[in-house]
Every structure is written in C-alpha cells, then in structure tokens.
Amino acid sequence: MLQAVVLQAPAKVNYRLDVLSRRPDGYHELRMIMQRVNLCDQVRLQLREAPGISVSCGKEGVPEGEGNIAWKAAKALLELSGAGVGVGIAIEKRIPVAAGLGGGSSDCAAVLLGLNELLGLGLSCERLMEIGVTLGADVPFFVFQQTALAEGIGERLTPLTGLPSAWVVLVNPNVPVSTAWVYKNLQLTQRERLATIPDSFKDVASLCAILSNDLENVTIPAFPVIDEIKRELIACGAHCSLMSGSGPTVFGLFSDEATARTAADALQRHADWFVAVAETV
C-alpha cells in the first residue's frame, strides 16, 4: 500500500453561470460551464499508523482542523475504509482563498482521490462524486476532472469536449465577497429561454459568445473594482472577461501566452491585486 501521495488541485473558472431558480432546500438551481486551469494548490497526503486527521496550511483564512473541507473529506473516506489509520494533510495554497476559483473544493476533491488510492478503496468516480456533493457543491466537478456542463447545484455533470484551450489571466482585487451574501441578494428574473450552448468553437474568441455570470448583477454594484478589472483586461488584449463564480476574481481569455503575460505584467502595477497567468486543462 502506498503511504504518501502528492496531488495538484487545480482552480476553475466559470465560463457561464446561470441561476435558474431558488430551491426549497435553500440552494439554487444552476447551469454552469466549468473549466479547470493550471493554477494549482499542492496537496500532500501521508498515512499514519495512529488514528486521527491533521491539516496544515499556514494560509490566513484557511482553517486547519475540523472546519477544513479537506479534513471532512479525509474523515469520510477513513470511516468508509475502517482501516484504523490516520492521515496528515499538508496544503500549499497557490489559489486565492474565497475567490470564486474553487480552491477549497479542489483541495477536498484531491483528498478524496488521493485517499481512494492510498487506502486501496477502489471507489468509482461516481461514488466519490456522491460523497463529494455532501461536502461542497463544486467538489464533484473537481473529482470529475473534465470540462463540464454542471446542472442542479453543480452535481449533475456532462463533459464538454468542443472547447478550445485558452490562456487565462486571473485577477483578484483582494476584497472579501461572501458567496452566501451574493445569493441572498440575487433578484431572480423570469427567463424566456436558456441560451443554447454550441457543440464546438472555432477559436478562443468564439468562446466569448457563451460568457455570462448572473451573479455579476449583485457583486459589481457592491464592488465596482470588479468592473474596473474587466475593462482593464479588455484594454490589455483579452478577447473577453468575466467574474468567476461569486467573485471577486475576474478572468480574461487570451489566444496566446505572450499577450496574456504582457497583460498580466501591466496589471501587476496594482500592488494590492493578485495576478496570475494560467492555461486551461
């Protein structure tokens, strides 16, 4: 049995985020196009003979005990295994915290995938996704490991294969945005119909036709800096730009690495902004 494993936990962006209705359970019915990018946290799992779970991260805003979603993932699989062992989880955070990029959910999925391997459980992707959705709505997507159309609260996933690869500039203005606050203040409007999603795209520029995020209607009026970042990304050569998830991170799509890096360099002049260049995976 393997005793340790190191996994890369990628961030995601939402090319589309449609909020369709409010559900009786308090969640919202969504339709999203979710795309992973290669800005990754590193998650190291180490099995231990003594029972117990530890999480170390050292990043402000990330709990290190039972409040960490990665801890909850480990608890679920250790209980399922009945192995009587423990695990140490070390997370090196590279994805900004509470940024609309899914970092915590990705770390959680990495723990599910890694412990499934370390403990020799042989659980299917579908079973891990079932466990994941009980921990967080975005976790199944990261277990799925494919670009996807996500429906329901995000747990019903259909692979999307016709999307071109793109260079992505991620910009986070380091302002705190509460996902719960955003959804609470969202005013749902009646839709005549959902926009159709093409089966394929000829290039990165054509992706712009599907970019949309209903949550911008709440977040941008409260945090105008998000709109400022969108405009700056376009001015720096992005084909289009959008807020990811509930924000505050904004991303711009580029066809080539050189233009993306030049744009990122220009945006670095804002010393209080997090800026990173990534590629879709």
Any overview of this molecule?
This protein is an alpha+beta fold. It has nine helices and eleven strands. Strand 1 (4-22) and strand 2 (28-48) form a beta hairpin. The two termini are 30 Å apart.
Task: Describe the secondary-structure layout.
Elements (H helix, E strand, L loop, with lengths): L3 E19 L5 E21 L3 E5 L12 H13 L4 E7 L10 H16 L6 H9 L5 H6 L3 E5 L3 E4 L7 E6 L6 H6 L19 H4 L4 E2 L2 H7 L2 H11 L4 E4 L6 E5 L2 H11 L6 E6 L2
Parallel strand pairs: 1-8, 3-4
Antiparallel strand pairs: 1-2, 2-4, 2-5, 5-6, 7-10, 7-11, 9-10
Helix pairs in contact: 1-2
Summarize the structure.
The protein has helices at residues 69-81, 103-118, 125-133, 139-144, 179-184, 204-207, 216-222, 225-235, 257-267, and strands at residues 4-22, 28-48, 52-56, 86-92, 148-152, 156-159, 167-172, 212-213, 240-243, 250-254, 274-279. The chain has 281 residues and is α+β, with helices and mostly antiparallel strands.
Principal-axes geometry comes out as: globular
Q: Please report the number of helical segments.
A: 9
| Secondary-structure-derived class | alpha+beta
| CATH fold descriptor of the largest domain | Ribosomal Protein S5, domain 2
Strand content: 25-35%
Mean pLDDT over the residues: 93
Quick one: CATH class of the largest domain? Alpha Beta
